[in-house]
């Protein structure tokens, strides 16, 4: 009888360590679990949690760094998300079961020292007016003044959980709960590059002009994505971001300096 892919993984050497969670294999370590899911014939998704959580995201990133350092033959790319790591591989070089075993071994070898000291990046931001057309809506919806919204948004040091949606777009979690607002019912067709938006308990920055449904409260002159640069994206998962308020004339001067 053919063995389903998930059971083949269980029977390939993990019998004593792997347990079942629903129909999928999982392994417990500390307070977190790891689940290997099939992402296609050349992608293994390693799931470490089911919520936006800083501890989970740190483990995701640490596992990605450990995989990079291990230089596992056949692994092409590892992409971290909020709570999982998508590992793209060449199935002609390494099969899914062998990769799952290697990932399990690497995960067991992680320790707290795998979390590197983060970079702190300041993002100069002009709030409101034509640069932040939804600031007034956010203030009304939250029952706050405009200045209180700006203070609450610019006060925290945000963790970059992941990049996604488009090249260089940082997902910054743990936005102040008071600033949680619904997204636009109809997304804008064009959101200018550098726009600072709010989506649920997240905030982020549009690196290039694009459509978008987040509430736009400000804009920065900082370029987040440059495909010609050696490091095309300014921010990376694990970095820390602080928004620093600027006046409109300062933003406009910075923009002129870029031209």
TrEMBL record:
SUPFAM superfamilies: Cyclophilin-like, PH0987 N-terminal domain-like. Keywords: ATP-binding, Hydrolase, Nucleotide-binding. Its EC number is 3.5.2.9. It comes from the Bacteria. InterPro entries: CT_C_D, Cyclophilin-like_dom_sf, PxpB. It is an enzyme of class 3 (hydrolase). Pfam families: CT_C_D. Residues 34-235 form the Carboxyltransferase domain. This is 5-oxoprolinase subunit PxpB. It comes from Candidatus Methylomirabilis tolerans. The gene is pxpB.
């Amino acid at each position: 009888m053919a063995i389903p892919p998930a059971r083949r993984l269980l029977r390939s050497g993990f019998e004593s360590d792997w347990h079942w969670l629903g129909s999928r294999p999982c392994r417990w370590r500390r307070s977190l679990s790891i689940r290997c899911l099939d992402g296609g014939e050349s992608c293994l998704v390693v799931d470490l949690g089911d919520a936006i959580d800083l501890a989970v995201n740190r483990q995701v990133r640490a596992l990605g760094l450990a995989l990079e350092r291990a230089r596992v033959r056949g692994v092409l790319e590892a992409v971290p998300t909020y709570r999982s790591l998508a590992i793209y591989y060449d199935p002609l070089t390494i099969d899914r079961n062998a990769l799952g075993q290697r990932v399990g071994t690497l995960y067991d070898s992680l320790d707290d020292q795998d979390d590197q000291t983060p970079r702190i990046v300041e993002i100069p931001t002009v709030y409101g007016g034509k640069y932040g057309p939804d600031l007034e809506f956010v203030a009304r919806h939250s029952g706050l003044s405009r200045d209180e919204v700006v203070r609450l948004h610019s006060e925290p040091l945000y963790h970059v959980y992941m990049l996604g949606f488009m090249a260089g777009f940082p997902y910054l979690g743990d936005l102040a709960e008071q600033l949680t607002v619904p997204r636009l019912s109809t997304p804008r067709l064009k959101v200018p590059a550098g726009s600072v938006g709010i989506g649920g308990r997240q905030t982020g920055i549009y690196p290039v002009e694009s459509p978008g449904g987040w509430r736009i409260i400000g804009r920065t002159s900082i370029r987040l994505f440059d495909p010609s640069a050696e490091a095309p994206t300014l921010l990376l998962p694990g970095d820390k971001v602080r928004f620093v308020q600027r006046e409109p004339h300062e933003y406009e001067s910075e923009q002129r300096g870029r031209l």
